[in-house]
Design a protein that fits this description.
single chain, mainly alpha, 13 helices, 70% helix, 0% strand, disordered N terminus
């Protein structure tokens, strides 16, 4: 079927391209998270967000020029783009606040409920189909999350809820990415996000940049968010620049992935970041997940892979069916 003049364009559907972008994005995310955790003992979160977004925006604007120039930043749906950008801010700030306290692998493991949420949300928001078997697999994944956070147990830490908040905001954001991706370039969507981060982090600096709200705060995540700005040491500038480049790369690759294939197809490949975070967490920070965390990871990753396999089987079955009205 061909689109009639004036009708809305159909979403691009290129799974191989989308999977490549999401895997590259997971590498960028792992590097980004490791640098933030490494610097979290010396700098406030909103300062790191300001620098990474400022540098990331410069990188992103180069991509904007490559994809069509500044005119592609114009949008007929500014409210949806603003909501999407604010969801990214909530996801990042809550995730990074948890990262300062929790091990890298544990934080990522809890966050990995997001692909399951993306698959669920794609049903009411995008009209995608998810069968009973995939719903049961998603339920197994959620049970894995409960095993990891162990609500009511002695080892429960309220900080463990922050990655779940991040996952919820992230899932909504990526579903919106798919919805907006028909008319917006990936670099434009990434630029909107970087600008929103700059505005929010600047607001934090104006209100709390002197550190007065951090006085007497004992919660390490909250103290990480509210402590005073410190001019970066000369030895740390390379890391701040790396953060900016990774930020621009993450925004572009993830936007490109979710605008070029269905959310249910792309989301499971985000699990590639899990073994990366386990390896980096062990190598750089000496953190190794407990058997309970490994069990939860196995349940979440297993359910995600099953969801993906069912999606692939369904796509192949539909593609093999004869098309009505086609001769032969």
């Amino acid at each position: 079927m061909t689109a009639t003049p004036g009708s809305p364009a159909a979403p691009e559907n290129n799974p191989a391209k989308a999977i490549t972008f999401i895997l590259v994005g997971m590498v960028f995310i792992t590097i980004n998270d490791s640098v933030i955790k490494f610097l979290s003992g010396d700098y406030p979160l909103h300062q790191m967000v300001f620098f990474r977004s400022g540098i990331g925006l410069m990188f992103t604007l180069v991509l904007v020029q490559i994809e069509g120039g500044f005119q592609i930043l114009r949008t007929a749906r500014p409210v949806l783009h603003l909501i999407r950008a604010l969801l990214v801010v909530v996801a990042n700030m809550s995730f990074f606040a948890a990262l300062a306290v929790l091990p890298l692998a544990d934080t990522n493991a809890l966050f990995f409920v997001s692909p399951l949420l993306i698959t669920l949300l794609s049903v009411p928001l995008l009209g995608e189909k998810v069968g009973v078997r995939r719903l049961l697999a998603i339920l197994v994944g959620f049970l894995g999350v409960l095993i990891m956070i162990r609500p009511g147990a002695d080892g429960f830490n309220v900080t463990m809820l922050l990655p779940l908040l991040a996952a919820s905001a992230y899932a909504l954001m990526q579903v919106l990415t798919r919805k907006l991706g028909v008319a917006s370039k990936a670099s434009a969507m990434a630029a909107y996000i970087q600008l929103t981060f700059l505005c929010v982090s600047t607001g934090f600096f104006i209100v709390a940049g002197d550190g007065r709200f951090a006085e007497g705060v004992t919660d390490p995540s909250l103290e990480f968010l509210l402590r005073a700005w410190v001019w970066p040491a000369s030895s740390d500038w390379a890391l701040f620049i790396l953060l900016g480049v990774m930020s621009g790369g993450v925004g572009y690759t993830l936007s490109m992935a979710y605008r070029t294939a269905s959310a249910a197809t792309v989301a499971p490949y985000e699990y590639a970041a899990m073994p990366m975070s386990v390896a980096v967490g062990w190598y750089l920070f000496g953190d190794w997940p407990s058997p309970t965390i490994f069990l939860g990871i196995a349940m979440i990753v297993g359910s995600g892979l099953y969801v993906f396999l069912r999606e692939s089987q369904k796509s192949r079955t539909i593609a093999a069916l004869p098309k009505r009205g086609r001769a032969g």
